[in-house]
Design goal:
The complex is a heterodimer. Chain A is an alpha/beta fold. Chain A has 16 helices and 12 strands. In chain A, the strands form 3 sheets. In chain A, strands 2-3-4-1-5-6-7 form a 7-stranded mixed sheet, sandwiched between helices. A 3-stranded antiparallel sheet of chain A has the order 8-9-12, with no helix packed on it. A two-stranded antiparallel ribbon of chain A has the order 10-11. In chain A, a hairpin with a 2-residue loop joins β8 (about 385-390) and β9 (about 390-400). In chain A, α2 (about 40-50) crosses α4 (about 85-95). The longest helix of chain A has 23 residues, at about 250-275. Chain A is globular. By secondary structure, chain B is mainly α. Chain B is about 75% helix and about 5% strand. Classes of the chains: A alpha/beta, B mainly alpha. The interface of A and B includes residues 384 and 387 of A.
């Protein structure tokens, strides 16, 4: 649905420009996305740190074959896009009060230059690959669904979603407020503000732990970036009657205008400027929060993933398409925080993620793109062990649970280590989506752990972050360009 | 182990005390090896494919052009000869034509056999690589494919038929990829390994004996060479291949290549024993020590030939060591006999 407009001359010209630059200086644009709290920032920080500090990455061929010469950060190509604050995030992870870094609130960029020795006999000697990493909130991809909907339809669907029984506890204020507003009443900025604030609060509550919902457009309401408070973000759904027509100057007409402005001024430029130019994409998914929250959250995650993935223009590039409208050639779906589960559960975690992204995978693969699904942890916060007690043994993970985490009636203070057994994932992933909710509510509970205590060099530098399968992810995403 | 897996599978946590033991009692058993390290090692275990030879090289162009040129010359000479004979005496001419035709037919058959033998060698190499990959990935479908190809490599005749029947029995059973290959290895290759080992051992002892008593160095060289060639051929036969002339050449090159690659490793695992053993013999007689060293070298060629001819890598079976095939040459420390204190 976001196929490039065939007459998009500017886009085509830019594509051609990129292509020409690529011949002189090989560049790969890697998109990193995921819904909030999927671990984008940690992933990116760990990725950059692993490359720069030349950590042990056995599966990444260029590293294990000793061909990696030097990796450095360089100033990024776009002057108006924020730089990914790699150093801040790294110090958050590794500092004295180690904690997970602040989440991605807006788009950011980072350019890494990788110097390596080529393994092919045709081009011996030093080669250089420029890796442009674009980090953006996955919520923004959900906005794509808005492009095909007008204001009336969006209002109806959003309010219908809010009326679902499971959201009864949080949708009250929004439904109450929209019930008192008449579409044809005269527009007052104060009303619009109140509506938008209530709507934002509702979206935020949906995202929180108890519900852990994902499918919550418009994305900028949760991730406003620097647009907070601007008119394009000050609108909300209204209860519109069937066959409604806007009355000029009325509340509904203004809301409709702002909704359209949001699509025109915010959604479209993002896709044009950044999204449509990616070569590789990694989609991070936090399966554990959804699994903790239960069936509805998992089903909602599936909807959200399927919606976001329709955004990708995938497939093998032909010469022509690589010049004018490059496609995403490889997509990696990564279930993050795999260190919060024992490694024997990873196959099931992967199977579940595979099921959730199945539709998108089939589509992308038939278009010729390469797809892979892995369970990984960019920063490994736990270690594994077996606890033997009273003749029974159980596979556990050991780490420092975050303050306030609970499992059963244990509540943790964020200092002491604990061994945790989070329960079993279903052997058949389909039961997580289809079966009636007959299982007990507490059949699965993954704790959140603090970042690991790190080994250090004598001079205080960190030795390298422990990871799970980050090297495999890298080999899949960029390994083929480092041969 | 006496511990049962957990019955109640609900989530739970165990607080750990300062020493890292669960507060509520019980023990904490840390794994010996990090499972992710193992996984990564398995993923990278498949070595990179050896660089393909260039399709076109000037040497190749020279030899094929030169060969064709000479062939044309010979053809022209043969035609002229037959024509001249026909003109002089028709009976002689027809006899010459028949002889030439017979020679051409035989040449064609020989060439066909050479090609067939080379292709078989290539198939064995490809099979070994695929088997290694399938084993590392524990891939069921790939393992079944490997076993099918291994079956196709077995020779005809009653021995081959028995092996094939045993492999067919495997088809019905549900076995993991890696385990399936281990079973197939045991069925097919265990007897062949035994034969190959015996061949190497006998060649090594013969070489050491003969070179110990032979009067001239040139005799040693010729004998060792002849024995090595014969040994490599017989090892190839043990694994079901009958190498032809070109096949044997290629096999010889692969064996030498394997020796240079594994030479460094052999220094690590066996050279001390080899030199010590030789030293002991050499103290008795210089010629005897020379013979032992020759035998050991022959045995190493034999081991390399086994590695090159065997259609599967060593999975469940242990690869033969030098002491397995040349133990009798290496003195008591490697031979395994009880050491007696010198009286």
């Amino acid at each position: 649905m976001t196929q490039a407009n065939p007459y998009d001359v500017v886009g085509a010209a830019r594509g051609l420009f990129d292509y020409a630059g690529n011949l002189v200086r090989p560049t790969l644009r890697l998109g990193v996305t995921g819904l909030s709290r999927a671990g984008k920032t940690v992933f990116l920080t760990a990725l950059v740190q692993a490359l720069i500090s030349r950590s042990r990455l056995p599966v990444l061929r260029v590293a294990s074959e000793g061909r990696l010469a030097r990796v450095r950060l360089e100033h990024q190509p776009h002057d108006t896009v924020p730089r990914f604050a790699f150093e801040d995030h790294l110090s958050a992870l590794t500092g004295a009060d180690r904690h997970w870094p602040e989440s991605t609130r807006r788009i950011s960029e980072l350019r890494i230059v990788i110097e390596y020795r080529s393994a092919s006999s045709w081009l011996p000697g030093q080669s250089t690959l420029t890796l442009d990493i674009v980090d953006y909130p996955g919520e923004w991809l959900l906005d794509l669904t808005l492009l095909t909907k007008d204001y009336a339809r969006w209002s109806r669907e959003t309010l219908a979603g809010a009326a679902k029984p499971s959201r009864a506890g949080i949708a009250g204020p929004l439904l109450g407020l929209t019930g008192t507003m008449r579409p044809e009443q005269v527009f007052e900025e104060a009303d619009a503000r109140r509506l938008a604030e209530t709507f934002t609060a509702y979206l935020r509550a949906c995202r929180d732990d108890a519900l852990s919902l994902s499918m919550l457009p418009p994305g900028r309401f949760l991730m406003p970036g620097d647009l907070e408070g601007s008119p394009a973000l000050t609108f909300a759904p209204l209860a519109l009657p069937e066959g409604w027509t806007p009355v000029p100057g009325s509340l509904a007409a203004t809301m409709q205008r702002r909704y359209e402005a949001y699509k025109r001024e915010i959604v479209r430029p993002f896709f044009r400027e950044h999204f449509s130019r990616l070569d590789r994409q990694v989609v991070l998914v936090d399966m554990l929060s959804a699994l903790n929250a239960g069936r509805e959250a998992v089903a909602d995650l599936e909807t959200a993933l399927t919606e976001t993935l329709t955004a990708f223009r995938t497939g093998q590039n032909s010469l022509l398409s690589s010049m004018f409208a490059p496609r995403v050639e490889k997509i990696l779906f990564a279930a993050t925080k795999a260190d919060h589960l024992h490694h024997t559960s990873h196959d099931r975690l992967e199977a579940l993620l595979r099921l959730l992204v199945n539709k998108a995978m089939v589509r992308a693969e038939s278009a010729g793109a390469e797809i892979d699904v892995i369970a990984m942890a960019a920063v490994r916060a736990t270690r594994e062990a077996q606890v033997r007690q009273a003749g029974e043994s159980v596979d556990c993970i050991i780490g420092v649970p975050m303050r306030g985490e609970r499992i059963g009636d244990e509540v943790f203070d964020g200092h002491d280590e604990a061994a945790a057994f989070p329960g079993d994932l279903p052997a058949d992933p389909a039961t997580m989506l289809s079966a009636a909710p007959s299982q007990r509510e507490s059949a699965f509970r993954a704790l959140r752990f603090r970042p690991p205590l790190l080994e250090r060099h004598p001079d205080g530098r960190v030795k390298g972050l422990p990871q799970i399968r980050l090297d495999r992810a890298l080999e899949f995403l960029i390994g083929d360009r480092l041969r | 182990m006496s511990e049962r897996p957990l019955k109640d599978r609900s989530p739970r946590a165990f607080r750990l005390d300062e020493a890292g033991a669960p507060v509520a009692g019980g023990r904490l058993i840390a794994p010996d090896v990090d499972p992710y390290e193992l996984e990564a090692a398995r993923l990278v275990a498949t070595p990179p494919a050896p660089r393909r030879r260039r399709l076109l090289s000037w040497g190749g162009v020279f030899w094929s052009a030169f060969g064709s040129f000479v062939g044309l010359g010979i053809g022209l000479w043969a035609v002229n000869l037959v024509e001249a004979l026909l003109a002089a005496n028709p009976v002689l001419g027809w006899a010459a034509a028949a002889l030439a035709g017979l020679a051409a037919l035989a040449l064609a058959v020989i060439l066909l056999r050479e090609i067939w033998s080379l292709r078989r060698l290539g198939r064995v190499e490809a099979l070994r690589e695929d088997a290694q990959a399938a084993y590392a990935a524990d891939d069921g479908a790939a393992a079944r494919d490997v076993v099918q190809r291994l079956r196709a490599l077995q020779p005809g005749g009653p021995a081959g038929a028995a092996v094939r029947a045993a492999l067919d029995d495997l088809n019905g059973e549900i076995i993991d990829g890696a385990d399936l290959m281990k079973v197939a290895e045991r069925i097919v290759l265990q007897p062949q390994d035994a034969i190959a080992r015996a061949v190497v051992a006998s060649a090594a002892s013969r070489v050491s004996m003969v070179t110990a008593i032979s009067p001239r160095a040139i005799v040693d060289v010729v004998f060792v060479l002849a024995q090595s060639v014969r040994m490599v051929r017989r090892i190839a036969e043990a694994y079901g291949g009958r190498p032809s002339f070109l096949g044997a050449l290629r096999l010889g090159r692969a064996v030498l290549g394997h020796l240079t690659v594994t030479g460094g490793m052999a220094i690590g695992d066996g050279l001390i024993g080899q030199v010590l053993g030789a030293g002991l013999a050499a103290r008795l007689s210089a010629k005897l020590g020379e013979g032992v060293l020759n035998g050991v070298l022959t045995a190493r060629i034999g081991l390399a030939a086994i590695a090159v001819c065997r259609p599967l890598p060593f999975l469940a079976e242990k690869p033969p060591l030098l002491s397995d095939v040349a133990g009798s040459l290496l003195g008591p420390s490697e031979g395994g006999g009880p050491e007696k204190t010198a009286g």
